[in-house]
Amino acid sequence: MDTQTQRILTDDMIAEIRDMYQHFPVKKAACIEALKLIQKHHRWVSDQAVQELAEVLDMSPDEIDSVATFYNLIFRKPVGRHVILICDSVSCWIMGYEKIADYLKQKLGIQFGETTPDGRFTLIPICCLGTCDRAPAMFIDEDLHRDLTVEQIDAILERYP
Ligand code: FES
């Protein structure tokens, strides 16, 4: 790597990742936790971060990328200030997910996987959030919103400037 390039993984982060893999029989077992750590610091995981993590975990960048792509809470492109994760699993489907999703897309002017032009929201579908008895449901950042109706959406979004 070009030594002039600003590194994504700081010495502290690398030390933390090393500490993670001490607890596993192979370094690569720490991959998801390491990706989460990078995302905690940078909000998403860039190609450069993948490259650097590959060096630390003795994996290829492709291997890291397939883990990151499989695990849909790892963001491989920049996200907005707030991330909406809307459940598209069966209970939420039955209880009106489609209306909520359509309203969100129309209100925000984006499709799934996209970020609003002002950088405020990213909208992502996700499988069951484990609150099926209160479907439909979505997370915005760390907040779980349940028993959703279209009528509530505007007021909910206003809480996230
Ligand atoms: S199906 Fe949506 S929370 Fe379980």
Automatic annotation (TrEMBL):
Coiled coil: none
Keyword match Signal: no
Cofactor: [2Fe-2S] cluster
Cofactor note: Binds 1 [2Fe-2S] cluster.
Pfam family, any one: 2Fe-2S_thioredx
Phosphoprotein recorded as keyword: no
Binding site for [2Fe-2S] cluster: 87, 92, 128, 132
Alphabetical keyword list: 2Fe-2S, Iron, Iron-sulfur, Metal-binding
InterPro entries: NuoE-like (IPR002023), NuoE_dom (IPR042128), NuoE_N (IPR041921), Thioredoxin-like_sf (IPR036249)
GO molecular function: 2 iron, 2 sulfur cluster binding; metal ion binding; NADH dehydrogenase activity
NCBIfam families (UniProt xref): nuoE_fam, PRK07539.1-2
Family: Belongs to the complex I 24 kDa subunit family.
Record's protein name: NADH dehydrogenase subunit E
